[in-house]
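Lab notebook: predicted structure, single chain.

Context: the supervisor wants predicted structures on file for every construct in the current expression panel, including those that have not yet been purified. This is the next one on the list. No modifications to the sequence; it matches the entry in the shared construct table.
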Amino acid sequence: MSKRLTLAVSQSHTLPTTSATLSALSSTARSASRSNVHLLLFPEAYLGGYPRTCDFGATVGSRSDQGREQFLQYYHNAIDLGDTPRGAGDDWVERRLEVAKGKDYRGDGTREKLEKVARETGVFLVVGLVERAGGSLYCGVVYVCPREGCVGKRRKVMPTGSERLIWAQGSPSTLKAIKTTISGVEITLAAAICWENYMPLLRYSLYSQNVNLYLAPTADARGTWLPLMRTIACESRAYVLSANQCVRRKHLSPWIHGAPSRKEMDNKQPPMPAANTTGTDIHDDTTATSSTEEPIPKTPQPAAADSAPGDPSPSPLRSGATPSPIKQRTDRRRRSSNLTPIPDNHFLALPSESQEISALDDDSEPTGKPKTNAQSHHDISPPNNTITTTHQPDPDSSKDGEELVCRGGSCIISPSGDVLAGPLWDLEDELLIIGDVDFEDCERGRLDLDVAGSYSRNDAFELRVQGLDLSPPP
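Prediction complete. Output recorded below exactly as produced.
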């Protein structure tokens, strides 16, 4: 029996508001669905944002008022999934936690929005996010099944460097792998976030659970990241997906460039906001629901002229199959892409001239058939099956916000450590890279290497993780 699936990685950057980012996520998922994608990975902190370049006014022994205002803005941008600060685990997944009187769900409705997108598109979503629980923030990943909704969530156990100022440490019990069936193919998946992948024992805790799909959302755009992903794929004999944001300085949240101090804000004496008398959450654009209905997001509206687009349609890059362009909405003008073949049936999307794109109704049912259109092609031959670009940094780019503060680098790696697609560098137009894969390759690779089994010497070496059963899930 064939064990083939189509996997995708979205190289998308966070938009100025959570509402806009959720709309972009929905659009990306619908585009992936039209390309017959079964599972889609988004970058680290995609929802809530990765506050790159922000120091939050902190030095050793001192924190500034301006930095506290920046943290306030970041705290408000984070999403509330209705979990507890310690993490309720299966009680959260199964919705066994107490719900406040007069409400139909816990949190701010983001969980329900993600479940709705997965259900309507038929795409299994793995989303990097910043979660608010109690008074702390956690960097996390949520797994959203089209049939069952949220089937798991984990929090980063070791924030890196200055991330430790703003993100709390998650419980190692959340390293639990998820076993699911997608289109008749049984897979065991788990995520390690960014520099958790540099923790050998953490990686081994995932290998021990017999994962065959290893997910690595990240914010690391260094040249050392791709070799790490190839090593992990070879070690685990699993497919590895890594998603990163490609970010220009102009994409950073306005409060990162400088938030006024509380004293300055008090001196301005802004008008008091109108009271919320509806009894519903004021967060993004979730509507009120009855006790028998889950929250349904409002239909995304076209962005205002002075706001960032919240509904981009990504261009696909496919490994192992012929790609087709994805139509975009007509409520704004965007760059389209030309698909260029490179060796081994991989594809690179390069931007073409701006042109009007056909309309697409976000609320229409996905057809399951990719769109077709004529494309122009150019011959390029990069080495080692990697996707490269000829982009040269503009020395004056920092003057208009075009300076790249994160170059991306998203990729898909085979169980033998070969690069199937990517890495994508310096391309930020909401791109998808797509790979058609055979999960029997994971089993073929176990002939000579199973680091948690035949190659483990478990009679001599043993790993224990507090609160986590390292046995493969049933």
